[in-house]
Specification:
The chain is an alpha/beta fold and about 350 residues long. Helices cover about 30% and strands about 25% of the residues. It has 10 helices and 14 strands. Strands 4, 5, 8, 9, 10, 11, 12, 13 and 14 form a 9-stranded mixed β-sheet that branches. It has a 3-stranded mixed β-sheet with strand order 1-2-3, covered by helices on one side. A two-stranded antiparallel sheet has the order 6-7. β11, α7 (about 250-265) and β12 form a beta-alpha-beta unit. α3 (about 125-135) crosses α10 (about 340-355) and α5 (about 200-210) runs parallel beside α6 (about 230-240).
Length: about 350
């Protein structure tokens, strides 16, 4: 009969990997919530966790999960599970540091920024379908296209309707597919270039963030321009963001720039909700095989390395591109019948659970 292995912090940490963070496939150890594990000579265990969440139920769920593991772990005489619960902090204005001022967008509960370090990774596609998927979950959702130099949401939502204005000179967003939408692309001719210098572009962004009558939203999705320039800095320094979603493709050249985007948000203490790996693979309809055209697993490895969730892996799909071109985001399709729609629903569910 083999002897029971000695009870060590390493053994306990390994056991705690079975406790998943609510709403995610990743565990509390991978998320870095387990800060310390101590074991006395009498096998009395102390586990210290730090949890940052606006949701007061999250610590309770995790406590029950850890307690269940300790109860069934051989050799544990007693377990003291200590949780420090902190709400994510938002910097407030100070007289000597105007740049620290952050405010909520009027009429919006939660603002989520969708960003990428470089163009061409499908950030706008993710923004559009995340908005639609959240709406399908029953939330009131708006989408603000802040990609000033390449606004594409008018095309992706199949509308040319012009936004109106109310008596307070606030923009009135249009509505398409159940989403309240505002984009510079709805205000200019389709073939007109947006030839404005940085300061004017920043002014447009500030107007879109402050002077819009959203009418009460659960979520506002911000489709940011690619990169880490003036517009992104304006947003992260002045708007109270519930978090950021980083979009990348699996290859290293995209991941390099994704790290820069993540670095920007971390620098200003904006929570990273996670990484979406777009164009993860191509599922060939003729042979049913997955082809990893842009490399395999880069998004997952990067998310693990940075300690943030991998929210989803979106396949490279002809129908997704067609739906976007025809003004019908693929997330409108039945998730039970469309795997891409199902993937976007999972991303939406994870984002909603995290910020609420």
């Amino acid at each position: 009969m083999s002897e029971q292995p000695p009870l060590t912090p390493e053994l306990i940490r390994a056991a705690l990997t079975t406790v998943k963070y609510p709403g995610f496939s990743r565990d509390i150890v991978a998320f870095g919530l387990v800060k310390n594990i101590a074991v006395t000579p009498d096998n009395e265990v102390t586990v210290d966790l730090v949890i940052e969440s606006k949701n007061a139920d999250i610590p309770r769920y995790i406590y029950e999960g850890v307690q269940g593991v300790m109860k069934h772990l051989p050799g544990v005489k007693h377990a003291d599970i200590r949780i420090e619960h902190k709400a994510p902090e938002v910097k407030q204005a100070t007289n000597d540091d105007p740049a620290s001022w952050k405010a909520a967008v009027p009429g919006v509960k939660h603002v989520i920024a969708v960003a990428s370090g470089k163009g061409g990774v499908g950030k706008s596609t993710v923004s559009a379908n995340l908005a639609v998927a959240l709406s399908k979950l029953g939330y009131k959702v708006g989408l603000l296209d802040l990609d000033i130099y390449g606004p594409s949401m008018a095309l992706m939502f199949g509308t040319k309707e012009r936004p109106g204005a109310n008596d307070n000179d606030e923009f009135l967003p249009i509505e398409a597919h159940g989403i309240k939408l505002l984009s510079l692309g709805l205000m200019i001719e389709e073939d007109s270039p947006v030839a404005v210098r940085g300061p004017l572009a920043t002014r447009y962004v500030q107007q879109f963030l402050r002077n819009v009558e959203w009418g009460g939203l659960d979520f506002l999705i911000l489709d940011l321009p690619p990169g880490t320039g003036d517009i992104q800095l304006t947003i992260v320094q002045t708007v109270e963001l519930a978090g950021a979603v980083i979009v990348t493709t699996p290859q290293e050249v995209a991941l390099i720039d994704a790290r820069k985007a993540i670095g920007l948000f971390k620098k200003v203490e904006t929570p990273i909700l996670g990484v979406v790996e777009n164009m993860s693979y191509f599922l060939c309809p003729s042979d049913g095989k997955k082809y990893f055209i842009f490399g395999e697993g880069g998004g997952r490895k990067e998310a693990d390395k940075l300690g943030v969730p991998l929210l989803g892996q979106i396949p490279l799909d002809v129908d997704t591109r067609t739906c976007g071109d025809e003004g019908h985001p693929v997330a409108l399709e039945d998730p039970a019948a469309n795997p891409v729609s199902a993937a976007f629903r999972e991303v939406a569910e994870a984002c909603a659970k995290t910020v609420q």
